[in-house]
Amino acid sequence: MVTVLGIRDKVSVISMNNVHIDDESMQAVLDVLKSGQLAQGPKVEEFEKAFADYIGTNYAIAVNSGTAAIHVGLLAAGIAEGDEVITTPFSFISTANCCLFCGAVPVFVDINKETFDIAPHLIEKKISPKTKAIIIVHLYGQPCDMDEILEICKKHDLVLIEDACQAHGAEYNGQKVGSFGIGCFSFYPTKNMTTGEGGMITTNDEDIARKARMIRHHGQSQRYVNDLLGYNFRMTDIAAALGICQLKNLDAANAKRIINASYLSRHISQIEGIIPPYIALNRKHVFHQYTIQITEDYKLSRDELQQQLFIRNIGSAIYYPAPIHKQPLYRGLGYNGSLPVSEAVATRVLSLPVHPGLADTELEMIIEALHGT
Q1: Same domain, 278 and 182
Q2: Structural domains of the chain, count
Q3: Which of 41, 94, 97, 332 is the least crowded, having the fewest Cβ atoms under 10 Å away?
Q4: What is the predicted pLDDT for the residue at 350?
Q5: What is the pLDDT of residue 12?
Q6: Which residues pair with 293 in a beta bridge?
Q7: 156 and 194 in a common domain
Q8: Which residues of the chain have pLDDT under 50?
């Protein structure tokens, strides 16, 4: 029995996320602990090879977070002080912060109102002689418009960084995201697969891979030979052991997310005032988040609906309540322009549970709650 705001409810809590760690995963971690090789070692190398094979790239470089992956990817591509990097304002703040880490300047481009991904038709308007790269975000697990973006990068000789931290296994025209440019993945516990904390850089460029490996390990080309400024961004063998097992189960977990999302969308499409997620053509959306929009035609405001879900013990979350350019940090840096689609979407979005651990009865409860029944 759970009491919320004085209301007793017999329904178990339906969580936003459910980290599934099976017996094989626990045994794999235990084996590493018994081996005594806890830091970066053979398991990291094994995980890197398996992940590169899965994404379809020549190289994968493991690091200790998705943020580190983006940071290292930018540095390995040569992004430096004063360079401009075009990116989206509608993402987790680390997407843009990694530009600041390099001394570069994030330049924000508004998003597509349906997919929430960066709008390609607006990118060229923001390109200047200082523009050196584009960071796209495959937000919530939906791939960006890759054909248009690749054409822009080729035309203007720009480095493409794919923030695929929410899009493990997502595809555009049958090709996995993270294989179009420099891919950056996160393995935080809420992601479609996890290593506890961790990240991965994917690339087909041998030089990028070589530099990334050096940067993650104090700039070393060999033991105690430091060729450039680097960091301690290494992944542990403990994390990698978990990642190897999680990767084996990723496609099955994604398939269940897609089934759950399909069920939710089929029923939500019948509710006035709620817009289910839009899936663009030629995409495999892997639903890291299942994100609806609450319009003025719905009987409750977005915040009122979230409160009602809370009372019913159903998890929900807002990703993201404010675009990056509206964050105090960026206002302090002089960002005061208007990006109307991002700003409007931030007031309407609400993410619902979609994880593979949901039972059919729990999906039904979510729909009943949205109906108010």
Answers
A1: no
A2: 2
A3: 332
A4: 98
A5: 61
A6: 275, 349
A7: yes
A8: 1-11
Q: What is the pLDDT of residue 66?
A: 98
Structure tokens at 178: 């993270």
Domain that includes residue 360, residue range: 2-16+249-371
Shared domain for 274 and 181, answered yes or no, is no
Nearest CA-CA partner of 276 in 287, 291, 263, 255 = 291
Amino acid at 5: L
- What 47-53 contacts at long range (C-beta under 8 Å, 24+ apart), as own/partner pairs, is 47/235, 47/240, 47/241, 47/243, 47/244, 47/247, 48/200, 50/244, 50/247, 51/185, 51/200, 51/202, 51/243, 51/247, 52/202
Residue with tokens 């990767």: 247
Beta strands in 281-372 (DSSP E): 283-284, 290-294, 349-352
Q: Name the 3-class secondary structure at 59.
A: strand
Q: Judge whether 240 and 195 are in contact, CB under 8 Å.
A: yes
Give this prediction's pTM.
0.95
Say whether both 237 and 220 belong to one domain: yes
pLDDT, position 353: 98
CA distances (Å), 217 to each of 10, 65, 114, 185, 228, in order?
A: 51, 14, 40, 18, 10
